[in-house]
Amino acid sequence: MAREECKALLDALNKATACYHHLVLTVGGSADSQHLREELYKTRQKAQELAVATGARLTTALRDRGLGAEERAEFERLWVAFSGCLDLLEADMQRALALGTTFPLQAPRRPLVRTGVAGGWAGVAARALSVRSLRHEAERDFDVDDLQELEREIRQVGEMIHDLEMKVNVPRWTVQARQVAGAELLSSAGASTTGFVSIEERTGPCDLSKALAATVFSAVLLAAVALAVCVAKLS
């Protein structure tokens, strides 16, 4: 039960982190606005809440001395994936701070970076935050205050990563994957090959009598066409 709960939390964290990564890429571009900065704030808050909950569940499970070897191996794999999400979140938060400082909203409205992104990010944020509508809060200023808060949250995420590593020592290079690298591609290729063989088995080998009949018919047709051309020239 605990493992399924950790998987669900980790899946939600992965989606929120991916959403935040997508939004950060539009900062300073043609889609940048106060609305975007608000979505960045909401998304990273959601990601941090999920990170705290996921870390607490995984820490409790991995510190349980009565955990079986197979269960421990599965939780360690989840821990490695969780650590990767935290590293990506911290890196994207630092990128958002750098871009937000370089491209303040008080600057002229002509974007300094032409990314070509014209929209579509709001839908991604809505799916990650599980809300139907994200209203624009025009009365709040997310240009200066949010950058200061973001800098403080970056330090908090870094401290959280350090504290979790001190509580649970799971070196990433000691965790073994459940399948070899590229297994998904190999399985897809195997399925394609199996499908091709099954089609060939259903169609069966070529019928020699039908092939001979087709050849004779083609020869007669060509002879008839040649004869018609000769008659036309003589006439």
Question: Which regions contain 5 or more consecutive residues with pLDDT less than 50?
Answer: 131-140
Strand content: under 5%
Rounded Rg: 31 Å
Q: Tell me, rounded to a whole number, the average pLDDT.
A: 76
H/I helix tally: 7
Distance from first to last alpha carbon: 92 Å
Helix content: over 70%
Largest sheet: none
Secondary structure class reads: mainly alpha
> What order do the SSEs take from the amino end to the carboxyl end, as H and E?
HHHHHHH
Principal-axes shape call: elongated
Query: Can you count the beta strands?
Result: 0
Your description of this structure?
With 235 residues, the protein is an all-alpha fold. Helices cover 71% and strands 0% of the residues. It contains seven helices and no strands. It has helices at residues 2-24, 34-62, 69-102, 121-129, 145-167, 183-203, 208-234.
Topology:
Elements: H1 2-24, H2 34-62, H3 69-102, H4 121-129, H5 145-167, H6 183-203, H7 208-234
Helix pairs in contact: 1-2, 1-3, 1-4, 2-3, 2-4, 2-5, 3-5
What is the structure about, briefly put?
The chain has helices at 2-24, 34-62, 69-102, 121-129, 145-167, 183-203, 208-234.
